[in-house]
Structures are given as C-alpha cells and as structure tokens.
Amino acid sequence: MNLSRRALLSASALLVARPRLAFSDATHAAVKAPTAAEPLVLCWNENPYGPSPLARAALNGTVSHACRYPEQEIELLQNALVAKEGLSADHIVTGSGSGELLSALGTLVGRERGEIVAAEPTYLELPGYALRVGATVKYVPVDALLSHDLSAMRAAVSDKTRAVYLCNPNNPTGTAIGAAAIRSFVESLPDNVTTIVDEAYMEFADDPAVKSVTDLIGSGKRVVVLRTFSKIHGMAGVRCGYAMGQPDMIASMTDIRMASPSIFAMRAALASLGDHAFLTDTRRRVIASRQRITGELDRLGMPYAKAQGNFVFFDTGMPIGAFQERMLARHIRVGRRFPPFDNWCRITVGTEPQVDTFLSALRSIAAESRGRERKIG
C-alpha cells in the first residue's frame, strides 16, 4: 500500500503517541488455563492475537474524540483503501463490518424478488438476510473436497438468478477456489448476474493459486468483492469492512446501508493497514498453528478439509453435539453443527498455548473413543 505523505501525516496526527506493544503483550491473556467460568472460546473464527499495537493505540487515543463526527476519518480511510486496492473512490464503500454490506447486497436482490445461488454449507449472512427480504436462495452442495462445486453452481443459474455468492475461503469448510477458476466462472455467467466474492479470510490462504479477484471489478462483468477488518486485523468487535465493485453497484449499496463505521473503527482500521509487521507475524503464527492442528488430525486419522482460513473443519467421528459436550467438559467451546455435516467440527486456530490445550483435549477424546470401540468389539 502506498499512502501519500499528506495522508500519512494526517493519520499520524490522529493517533496518540505511545510505545508499541510487544507481540507477547497482545497474547499474554491466552496462557491462562480455561475454566468452567472462563472456557477457551474456539468457535467464532476470531483472531486470538487481537488488534495490532498501532490499532490499539488508535482506539485508546480516540476516547476523547468520541464526541466528534468522523468526517476526516472517512476521507483518510477511503484514501488508504484506494491506495491499497488500486481502485478509485467510487468503487469502494465501507460499512460496520462486511456483514452489513452483505446484508445490503441481500436487500438489493431481495427487493427484486431475485434468486441467489450459494454453496452448502457456507456463511449465511447474505443468503439468510436475502431470504428475509424477499429473495429465494438455491443452495448447491459442496463437492467431494468440500469446496464450491462451480460446475454445479453454474448449472443452477436460472433466468431468475440475480447473484451468485462465493465465500472464498469458504466458511465453515475452510476450502478455497483458485483465482483462475473464479475468473472462468464469472466469464461464463450472464451479464445481469452479479458474482459476490467474500474474501474475509483471504489473508490466511497459503495456496499459491488462491488470490484476490479484485481485478475482475474492471472486467465489464458484475462483480463485488468484500473484505473485513474482523479477521487478520483482529477487530471483530470494532466492526469495519468494505466492498469493492462497479460504481453503480457501490452507489446502490451506499444508499441502503444502515450505518458507516464509527470514528473508533475508522481510526483503528487506518492504523492497522499500516502495521505490516504485525499482520505478517499474525499470518505466520496462524498458518503454523493451523498446520499443527492438521498434522495431529493426520496422526489421529481424522479426515479434514483443506484449510485456508483461520480455522479447520474436521470429522470428529461422532455427532457434533457429543463432541461439543466432551470439549466443554474440558472447558473448550468449539463450532456448532453445519448441516449436512453432522459429525464435523469447525475449530478456530488459537494462540500457540490455546492450540496446545485444544490438541491435548482432542487426543484425550480420541483415546476415550478408541477405548469404547475396543469394549464394544
């Protein structure tokens, strides 16, 4: 990202000067042993490392300015996103989390009584909201690798289809589609169908084929790409996200969004965009811990989907309700049921100590299951 000197100076003036926090400070609380009163929460795909030190300083330094409207912040964040994405300002809209912008897209489709094609299972913010406002949703099961079945999704597109939703990497499966495959898919769609690509977890992907498809925005096809500050930036509770698309689509989304980010969210987002060292280290740690989890699943013989987000989707070998109970007995909260994968669990990648705790519990539960099987046999 290349910000202008003026933008950098203006952004710096908004922050309170203070020493940088060490990475270990951001994770100190993670070493506490979980208890029944304070279980280890690994069920929401949150980034356990939290906001970057610069974002924390921005949040703390904004309290005295909470009485002000964020007019300057709107311009600064917009300029930063323009520089980062290489798009003009009329191609970008911010929102109180990307979820709000997904709801706006659902409204646009729903008020036309249109149809959305989406994978099953996938993130339900967009299809769920669209259903409530009058749209219909056609779900297409994921393929044998638990990835989007693009051929089947293309076949599902009808005259009523107004949008196709691709969560990439997909939540809850964690699988991702290569950029080349998405480009071919978009090219095959009718001109009146909008492809909505939710890239909330893109920064955690380590497959070289998996990349952002923001370049499609200028292709002449109707494409919207969404990003969030909830995941790699660790600000799920702060609520800030943005969408990119053709100016007419962005204008429509801007008109119907319910709220823009707060002054806290915009200052923190602007600061986090510039904290490259923290973001790089967070990505490295999450990927390393994700590999530890999948390595243990291999050792235990538990199938799992190819993980490209900050979570792993795996087959527990038992109904998910039973697995949740056994984990909760060890003071760990894990992901809910995602039909039709009734035995599968989505586990968030925590800090290194949190992963230690989870893997210890997983080994214990696996050993108990093997013991029961031997008794039955």
Strand order across the largest sheet: 2-8-7-6-5-3-4
Given the structure, what is the number of helices?
A: 13
The total domain count is: 2
What is the C-alpha radius of gyration, as a whole number of Å?
A: 21 Å
Largest beta sheet, briefly?
7 strands, mixed
Let me know the number of strands: 11
How much of the polypeptide forms β-strand, as a percent range? 5-15%
CATH architecture of the largest domain: 3-Layer(aba) Sandwich
CATH superfamily of the largest domain: Type I PLP-dependent aspartate aminotransferase-like (Major domain)
CATH class annotation of the largest domain: Alpha Beta
Assign a percent range to the helix content.
40-55%
Distance N terminus to C terminus?
A: 61 Å
Structural shape: globular
At CATH level 3, the topology of the largest domain is: Aspartate Aminotransferase, domain 2
Give a brief rundown of this model.
The chain has 377 residues and is of the alpha/beta class. The protein is built from 13 helices and 11 strands. The longest helix has 25 residues, at 276-300.
